[in-house]
Amino acid sequence: MATAPQLAVSSRGDALELRPDGSWIAANVTTLESLTDAVTPQLERAKSLRLDMSGLSELDTLGAWLLEKLSRRIADRPVEVVGVSENYVGLIEEVRYVNRHNPPPPKARNPVIATVEKIGRAAWGSREDVVVFLQMLGSLCVAVLGIIRRPRSLRLTSLIYQLYRVGWQAIPIILLITLLIGAIIAQQGFFHFRKFGANSYVVDMVGILVLRELGVLIVAIMVAGRSGSAYTAELGSMKMREEIDALSTMGLDPVVVLILPRVLALVSALPILTFIGSMAALYGGGLVAWFYGGMGPAIFIARLHDAVSVTHFEVGMIKAPFMALVIGIVACSEGLRVKGSAELLGKQTTTSVVKSIFLVIVLDGLFAVFFASIGM
């Protein structure tokens, strides 16, 4: 039966002895605090302390911590703890080391060195991102091989729905943005080339730049911001609600059920969106050439026909599925890395978009070097 807590105090010269008795538990917190506060002045004057715990009938974390606080008031002076029951030895030891090893505050460092170190650590930490990317790519390859062996395992309904979201619903904003981009490029070209009497070369610039580079790049960046972020948020929310774990428990592969239809939809839709965006950009350039540059539609189309070849169109279209694959892998892998908090979900969504755009631009640069080396 629980007994009221007590704290007997005896002194022998400068040595102080404390004998806690009864139930030192959270239920008696008010009494315990009064007892420990009453003995504090004597602790500050004592040269040594002996703490006899043989009379304790009950002890929990609160009681152990209050006793530990009493022993810590004898700063740099001998403290002897005796009579600890075997039931409470582990608890006393755990409490004894609480806040004992706090590291000293860091010294002020050279900001240049700190910045270089931060960049180095970030670069070294990117290994994990590479490993995650390759793991997701391998899982997708295995899933695709499974679909080839068993075509009926492809979730066609999910694939069509994702195509509708990624492709059809994205057409209006893609048309608007690429139309404006093409118009701006043409306007700037006429404004500057007019000084040299080279208005006709604006058509060459718009056609080649849009078909080879800007068309696919602008569309990929927009898809990364629009669809990639949505993928990360959806999968992250499912991870937080343990729905993905539930799929695994049911014997279903989350890669086949959730990720493969999304990535296939991106790979299928991005080339189509690239074609639509490139045509809209050329149309915007043609409108500016007509109203701002004084170049009629027939002249613009004839000049475009002379300046642009099928090779330029092929270069842009070849890039599209690879960029879509990168966006899909990054978006899905970042979504699966969400762990239980809305703040982390937002962070991973932002990280997904930033990584996707960065990798798309890097991939575009690599393709540019590759196509230049083979003469395309």
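The above is record 1. Record 2 follows with the same two-line structure.
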Amino acid sequence: MSICVHGLGYIGLATASLFANAGTDVTGFDVDECVIDRLNEGDPNVSEPELESYIQDALESNLTPSHRPQPADVHIICVPTPYDELNDGADLTYVKDAGRTVANVLRSGDTVVLESTVPPGTTTGILAPILSQGDLEIGEDVHLGYTPETVMPGNTLTELRTNDRIVGGVDEASVSAIKSLYEPLTSGEIHVAADPTTAEFVKLAQNAERNVSIAYANTLALLAENYGIDVRSAISLANNHPRVDILSPGPGVGGHCLPVDPHFLSDGSGATELLDIASQVNSRMPEHVIRLLEDAIDSLEDKTVAVLGITYKGNVSDTRNSPGLEIAKLLGTVTVDTRPAMDGGWDEGSVTIHDPRATDSRLQLVPLDVAVDGADAVIFGAAHDEFAALDPEDIRSKMAGRTVVDPVDVIDTAQWTEQGFDVRTL
């Protein structure tokens, strides 16, 4: 069996390596020539050491990066589906392009699997017509289905091997072909959906549920603050109920999935009202974090703030839709090459950003000592292990002020308070 993986981003490259390390001949295709050139040099450019080594093993064995798509028994599409803000939905340009690319090399008997996160109906309503523009009939000549990835950055390899999978095929033969493809590679269970549209819906439902649950926790944090209650203690007590499992509050949600996927469910009927409100709650949390800071230091004028942690969550390198980065942008001028700097009304340089995990070279990250030197306040934007291990006495010796805002619950509040810090939390 041969496989061609279309799209060598984080998930596509990991997926290609999974099959290659299992002994399958895999071609990895990406339209970005720099990605292919880098992989041919043995550089996966991933931040997880275990995954990096795993990909390098694949490159040394059965994974061949290619500037051109190749005919294969199986085509797996793992291309991006960005959020189109103007149209409040998914931009399916890459999926359509990948479909046309696959169609050019598709043969009778081949299997096509879409893994990208897409709105319900994409596999059958958009991809299938593109693939069947020639003489091949979907379901008769070509197997087609949808199976989403559900891995968590930072633990990609383990979850790729162990998570359950959902398979939705256009017919029983497609389901059988796709199940037999993934079953040998995962210790998780393969669940069969009624059709590709159901499988697409389920992936979005999973991420929308998490977004709503986080919004509920954040709402409780806002309410508890008004009552003078420690919300984390209250949530811990509430979770003693056998049917209650409230998540922890935070400065918002980030990454590619949770802030984006709920929008893919919008069908114009107004049925997504709850999802829309949840997104609004979470998107406003960075502003609330700044209000916590303002309450602590009275005025932001002429103050210097260090934002520590601008990845979207703790112990990952991804900065997409990061609440910590949004906090920094709202506070002052943070330069990102692909987006005009935002002016928060402060002087240039009044906000410093540091992150030991972030790999985005477009950001003006500085070392920890530089970030906190002379700072009036510190805001923790991501719960990295490195921040939990910080010595508050050492940080105090470098800062001008004594204000710390920790919406991600990463530091020992009592320990920092003992060192004279005014610690504000959610």
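Residues 196-227 form the longest helix (32 residues).
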